[in-house]
Amino acid sequence: MTAAAATIPDDVIYIPDVASTRFYIGALAKLSVLQYFVAEAAVIGAWAGPEPYSRRTGLISDLGARGCGVFQSRDVCSPAHVLMNASFVVQGLGMVIGALLLGSALLCLAARPGGRIARGPGHGPGQGPGLRTPRTAGVAAAVAARVLTGAAGSGTVIVGLVPEDAGSVWHGVGAVMYFAAGALALLVLGCLWLRQTPLGWFVLACGALSLGALITGGLTGMHVPEPGTLERLMGYPITVGLAAVGLVIAQRVRQERVARKAQKARQARKALKA
User: Fold this and answer.
1) Contact by Cβ (8 Å): 63, 78
2) Which helix (H) or strand (E) holds 30?
3) Contact (Cβ atoms closer than 8 angstroms) between residue 133 and residue 43
4) CA-CA distance, 171 to 168, in Å (whole number)?
5) Contact yes or no for 28/34 (Cβ under 8 A)
6) What are the φ/ψ torsions at residue 98 (nearest 5 degrees)?
7) What gap in Å lies between CA 24 and CA 101, rounded to an integer?
8) Distance of CA 48 to the CA centre of its chain
9) Distances (CA, A) of 30 to 25, 102, 248
10) Tens-digit pLDDT profile for residues 31-72
11) Which residues make beta-bridge pairs with 13?
12) Are 44 and 53 in contact (CB under 8 A)?
């Protein structure tokens, strides 16, 4: 054990190697959810229904329907349904991989370099060498965010594997998992980051918007003038919010890598001078 390590207080747990490839891959996995918007636009462009597809009135799942015809009083025909369903699966896998690879300690402090996690009573921001977070509250919230993100990702994988016209209840189950767990994950993570970065408010707002739309959809049974708009208010904020989370973490990992590279360069110069 080095002398520096010996001086670390017993009540402090430092986060793992932030510059690790594992965390970088996890951040990129979260950013990968943005591919959904590209896929959706392409599938809408290939729509072959009797009426042009409208994001305002058309449900997202209609784009993944395998057959052409009337489904629940809607005329659907999506020749590029394979692309849409593949996008759902890729999006879900990105969320699950991100949840698995991004550690709870990292999520606690990813938005502020120099942070650390302390056991016992929490310390306020700005005290000590960095942000200190109560272990019981901060880590528990981060664990909850990871579990919820994984559940939401699993839900959208189910949506992609079981299209709406497959005659299975699992499509609806997967959709609810995605909307509900995804919104809650953003709410938890947004609250966790509020004192670390202004982006915490954005993540929190995405979660609140998605959850509010989900509640509205549940209360109205989606019988609203623009069901497509309402469903997208449930789903789009989750995709955007998770991508924002991935961006923050990717930037933090990059900062750590750049700092480490600069430190090694300084050490090398000192060694040459010696």
Assistant:
1) yes
2) helix 21-31
3) no
4) 6
5) no
6) -60, -40
7) 9
8) 32
9) 9, 10, 10
10) 999 999 999 999 999 999 999 999 999 999 999 999 999 998
11) 117
12) yes
CA pair distance 18, 111, nearest whole angstrom? 12
Three-class secondary structure of residue 12 per DSSP:
strand
- φ/ψ of residue 67, rounded to 5: -110, 165
- Amino acid, single-letter form, for residue 174: G
Q: Which contiguous run of DSSP H or E holds residue 116?
A: strand 116-118
Nearest to residue 118, comparing CAs of 195, 100, 110, 108? 108
pLDDT digits (tens, 9 = 90+) for 117-154: 554 444 444 444 444 444 556 788 999 999 999 999 99
pLDDT digits (tens, 9 = 90+) for 228-271: 999 999 999 999 999 999 998 998 888 877 877 887 878 777 77
Torsion of CA 104, 105, 108, 114, to 10 degrees: -160
Closest CA to 186 of 125, 227, 235, 232: 235
128-135, long-range: CB < 8 A, 24+ apart: 131/195, 131/196, 132/12, 133/108, 133/109, 135/13
